[in-house]
Design brief:
This protein is an alpha/beta fold. It has helices at about 5-10, 50-60, 105-110, 135-145, 150-170, 190-200, 210, and strands spanning about 20-25, 30, 45-50, 70-75, 80-85, 95, 115-125. It contains 7 helices and 7 strands. The chain has a 7-stranded mixed beta sheet, with helices on one face. The chain is elongated, with a radius of gyration of 22 Å.
Length: about 210
């Protein structure tokens, strides 16, 4: 089942820019069932694996020979999703059933070679710059399942909140790189809004809106 909003998002997939890289042979593609949790939820939803040799070949096709790619966002014919580097594999791509939107293993055996080509939408470099991320409830649950105590998250949140409050009162909120610039990659909505208000002339030490946030 898919709601209207999610269905509308799917239309954009046909217009996303992808770069064609490695053409796979049928025997290099393996389709496996998804791993499931105790509640039958999919633990590998949209996530597969790729061998290091194929990942390095993709890197060469992308003009990044010698760079180590950790993960790819791809399309392979009727399949889409993420592929992560798996050192246990050799010349193989493992797709989970949740990634294959139609067809099965026989599709890749009978289709045109272009339908077995790894089309790269995005990639993650192991030596690339760090990215900021939103600490949402899904990530918190993953951390908790990995034995990270909830108190650690609460202490970090309190630390940042107290420092932000202190900077608001001292007028140094927008100094020393405490908040990412509004034009920085992956800047949060809150940071973008604060920089936008600052550009409009609002002052953190004088306008009470900052404190009500």
């Amino acid at each position: 089942d898919m709601n209207v909003a999610k269905l509308a998002e799917r239309f954009k997939l046909g217009f996303s820019i992808a770069e064609r890289t490695v053409e796979l042979r049928p025997e290099q593609i393996c389709i496996l069932p998804d791993l499931e949790g105790q509640g039958r939820e999919l633990l590998t939803d949209g996530n597969g694996q790729i061998s290091p040799d194929l990942m390095d070949e993709v890197a060469r096709k992308l003009g990044m020979a010698g760079r180590r790619i950790s993960a790819l966002q791809v399309r392979i014919g009727p399949a889409k999703g993420m592929l992560v580097r798996d050192a246990m594999l050799r010349s193989q791509v493992i797709l989970r059933k949740s990634q294959v939107k139609y067809g099965d293993k026989s599709y890749f055996e009978e289709c045109e070679p272009c339908q077995r080509t790894i089309e790269v939408v995005d990639h993650v470099l192991a030596d690339g710059p760090c990215r900021t991320a939103k600490l949402n409830y899904q990530l918190i649950l993953v951390l908790e399942a990995s034995w990270v105590p909830p108190q650690v998250i609460l202490e970090l949140e309190q630390k940042v909140r107290l420092e932000m409050e202190s900077r608001l009162r001292s007028g140094t909120l927008l100094e020393d790189g405490f908040l990412p610039r509004s034009d920085a990659t992956h800047t949060s909505d809150l940071c973008s809004n604060i920089w936008g208000m600052h550009a409009a002339g609002m002052k953190p030490t004088e306008d009470s809106y900052f404190f009500r946030c």
